[in-house]
Specification:
The protein is α+β, with helices and mostly antiparallel strands. Helix content is 19%, strand content 29%. It has two helices and six strands; from the N terminus they run H-H-E-E-E-E-E-E. Strand 3 and strand 4 form a beta hairpin. The chain starts with 6 loop residues before the first helix and ends with a strand. The relative contact order is 0.25.
């Protein structure tokens, strides 16, 4: 996979395109990665094996929590599957629960 200048922006945009959709967090991330040609799906813990760890997240990075994953949007915001009522939504605090790792896919 070639990393274009807007590679990670495409992941973030694909996450935003799913706002309001009722699906789990892993499908949100799976569908977001498909926008850049990455076919990967697994439990939240499986995302710990994807890419490399970073401590300087950029929009499009994957935030892995215990039992949950999200796409980082910048400015501390994430897109994630919050609950069955809201579906996919933006939350303003990526650290709303302990972060296990931030993964950069390439």
């Amino acid at each position: 996979v070639n990393v274009e200048e807007n590679f990670y922006d495409k992941i973030a945009s694909a996450a935003l395109a799913q706002l309001g959709v009722y699906q789990d967090c892993t499908m949100l991330v799976t569908n977001s990665l498909k926008a850049v040609g990455i076919n990967f799906h697994g439990s939240p813990a499986a995302y710990l094996s994807l890419g490399t760890v970073t401590d300087n997240p950029v929009p499009g990075d994957i935030i892995v929590y215990s039992g949950h994953v999200a796409i980082y949007m910048g400015g501390g915001q994430i897109v994630h599957a919050s609950n069955a009522k809201d579906g996919i939504k933006i939350s303003g605090n990526a650290a709303y629960r302990p972060i296990v790792a931030v993964r950069r896919v390439l």
